[in-house]
Structure formats: C-alpha cells, structure tokens
Design a protein that fits this description.
Helices cover 58% and strands 11% of the residues. It is mainly α. It is elongated.
Length: 76
Amino acid sequence: MTSALRIALVVGSTREGRFGPRIADWFKDFADGRGDVALDAGGAEKAATAMLDDLVWWGNALLAARRRDEGRTGAV
C-alpha cells in the first residue's frame, strides 16, 4: 500500500483583494476528492503570511531610513 502524497498549500500573497485564495480553494476541493492526497491548507499559509508581513515591515523600515539619510546628505 502506498501512502498519500502530502501537500502543503501556501498562498504567497498578502495583498488586499488577492485572487490566490480562490485558486487555493479550487485546488483544495479537487485534492479532497482524491483518496491519495493529504492536504495541509492552513498552518503553512499562516506561517508564510506572518513571514511576509515581517518582510514588508522591515522593507518599509529600511526605505524610511534610506529616505531619512538621503534628506540629511542631500543625495537623491
């Protein structure tokens, strides 16, 4: 007997109004209809979203620091 194929479904966008969750829902419905697939559609996405939110925060902080430094030196 073969074991089920294990798939972690991660939607990699945090943008408001994103389309990815619709595709993920379609894939989840498709995978749930098969007996040979074990799908994790929750935990991995939450972890990825938290990581992306952190990256956005750090990116914004770095841009703000760069703009502050450019204003201080007169660089453009």
